[in-house]
Amino acid sequence: MVLGVSGVTAGDVVAVARYGARVELSDEAEAALAASRRIVDALAAEPGPVYGVSTGFGALATRYIGPGLRARLQRNIVRSHAAGLGPRVEREAVRAMMFLRLRTLCSGRTGVRPELARSLAALLNAGITPVVPEYGSLGCSGDLAPLAHCALTLIGEGEAEGPDGTVRPAAGLLAERGLVPVELREKEGLALLNGTDGMLGMLVLALADLDLLYRSADITAALTLEALLGTDQVLAPELHAVRPHPGQAAAAANMRKVLAGSGLTGHHQDEAPRVQDAYAVRCAPQVAGAGRDTLAHARTVAERELAADIDNPVVLHDGRVESNGNFHGAPLAYVLDFLAVAAADLGSIAERRTDRLLDRSRSHGLPPFLADDAGVDSGLMIAQYTQAALVGEMKRLAVPASADSIPSSAMQEDHVSMGWSAARKLRTAVGSLTRILAVELYAATRAVELRAGLEPAPASRAVIAAARVAGLQGPGPDRYLAPELAAAEEFVRSGALIAAAESVTGPLA
């Protein structure tokens, strides 16, 4: 992947962060870097103070720093700001953050030397991932502490994870790969720290994951509708056209495709025919659709941010170096929180569908808890407990981080976004949603198979067949359930569920 001076796509971020795509600087980026560095060098030679070049930082910006101390100043900001605590941030999130910072450096707006950008690209390509603790960023002045831990590896200090997954001193890892620690010059330490790259990287990764999970939820909802002998008439296009939300229409269309040709839907009501299915079944497209539209809004914010060049001060193409507030994470924090709310609601409705499958008073003829010999066997009773616990956690994670602000830096930085915290809890929520949908999938496939003599839809049969190959066993006496639920989680996470359904339906939106 060749980096120019313009923005990158979300796909580029995922390719580098998750799949290890290599990164190179274009000639255009090299020229932009050199041009902006000349501006910074000229300002460094002037006697007056310039923030980030010849001054301290934050509340200490009033002190003028002479030429003899400037290398130390830049090195010290990295060391002092690498003050995080807690468990390590995941490798893909750190790589996304590094790549996005490199992308901004290549814009020519930060004033760093070309060799600094080359060194960061080499670090990514070498598979060396800095150890970044979870806690430290307030989501304003950029993701300072997390980015400082990344910069620490670049100067050969601290610890990092090697390509083999082991954590060792960064200096040794650099030496093994023939990389030389960077000696920072004016503005370069600050330029490595002052961006929203951590928040943005985690947003982009979450969008990729949630796109998969929303399609998965349409499939599990369809399987549950089928298992409950529900009606697919509520999925008719003309009903969704009268409330023209695009996400809702897409969710309904996906469910229709999965249910096409089913022998279970709407034809086998019990002695008290149902006029309407319960909300958790009937309103599945409305809830999943609203979440899809939330994803679309978040994707728009991410695309704008991917085109942004965030630093403070920023080097303008007319030669000015100006202080600004573009590092404030509010745009990202809001959508990160919004996505956590939408994901929690999707998990909540999936759990309600699962509970209905297990309750013989509401499941329209299915055995209690889908057990083989109810009373002797407990079936999936406790699987639903696990699902409910995950839903409870997701509801707690839906509390917005962006509604909080704690002043810092002696009240110079007196309003912050907490966007990093919003991103961290969203990553947790994504994992929980994956597990919740896995439990619904496990219950729904078992329930469909218990409808003896009735023929499920071809797409349902394909999903069930693929699930059985993946280790999700069918109905039967009680057995050790955790491994099968873990297999169901991986079946959802990997996209195998979607692939199995799409082998019959074609692409799902």
UniProtKB/TrEMBL annotation:
Lyase keyword on record: yes
Gene Ontology MF: a single term: histidine ammonia-lyase activity
Highest taxon above the source species: Bacteria
Enzyme class: lyase
Record carries keyword Lyase: yes
CDD domains: PAL-HAL (cd00332)
Pathway: Amino-acid degradation; L-histidine degradation into L-glutamate; N-formimidoyl-L-glutamate from L-histidine: step 1/3
UniProt keywords, alphabetically: Histidine metabolism, Lyase
SUPFAM superfamilies tied to this protein: L-aspartase-like
Subcellular location: Cytoplasm
Enzyme Commission number(s): 4.3.1.3
Catalytically driven reaction(s): L-histidine = trans-urocanate + NH4(+)
Pfam families on file: Lyase_aromatic
Family: Belongs to the PAL/histidase family.
Designated name of the protein: Histidine ammonia-lyase
